[in-house]
Target: Transcription regulator TrmB N-terminal domain-containing protein
Amino acid sequence: MHFEALEHLGLSEKDAEVYQTLLKIGPSTIQTILDAVPYKRGDLYNIITSLEEWDLIEKKETDKKKTYTAKHPSKLEDIIQRQHQELEQQKNTLQDVLGNLTSMYNLSYHKQGVQYFEGKQGIINAYEKLLDIREPIDSIEDKGEMGKFISDYLKKFIKKRISREIFNRVIAPSTNEINITSRKELRETRTIKVTEFPFEMDIKICKNTLLFVTLKKESAIAIMIEDPIIAHNFRILFQFLWHQATKRVLSPKEIGENNSDVTVFNT
Model:
């Protein structure tokens, strides 16, 4: 008998036995099936319902008489295919939350203050955690991928940063048009030529925390590290770049668009 193989697919022992019985005896009434299997009528109706849900039998009714027929065994391959698709969906669902679950684990077990975030919502969560520190932020940014990948969140991020009076120093390629120097937005930006600075991620330093973010849709991840020594050394690197970078001179049009609110900060 092949009960074990069918049970591995998920069928119960009773389901497997009735299905194999129908394969042997062909189209049958409930009474005929009862004569061939050791189950009571009530149990058999439950088994028939289960096999219909598995799409392994079909019911026909003629002259007020119902008969049940086993479908071709190739239907078992369909079960495997459905299970495979469901497994892929479960894997995708897990990947959506795995980063945050890992972060929770790391925090609980004090894994050097490292948190991992994945996907659009995960990255938004990482930026929110950074704002919760409520300290000045030094940023080394890419060509403007943040505005493309999470454009709907960017304005909220800036608004929250301003409301919490968090000043932001930014170093970015000269082609980055998102974060310009603005007193109103509590930000000073300096630039480096994109040919010398083909940066493809966002780095933020805030007190003792560093945030590394890749903003490509196909590989969007963020890693947050809380460590005073690492943060201190990255801030030294930031200061070096800051003094090498160029204060951006805005055109009269850009100044007008910022309500004459552009300021050169003495930093």
Observations:
- The CA atoms of residues 127 and 157 lie 8 Å apart.
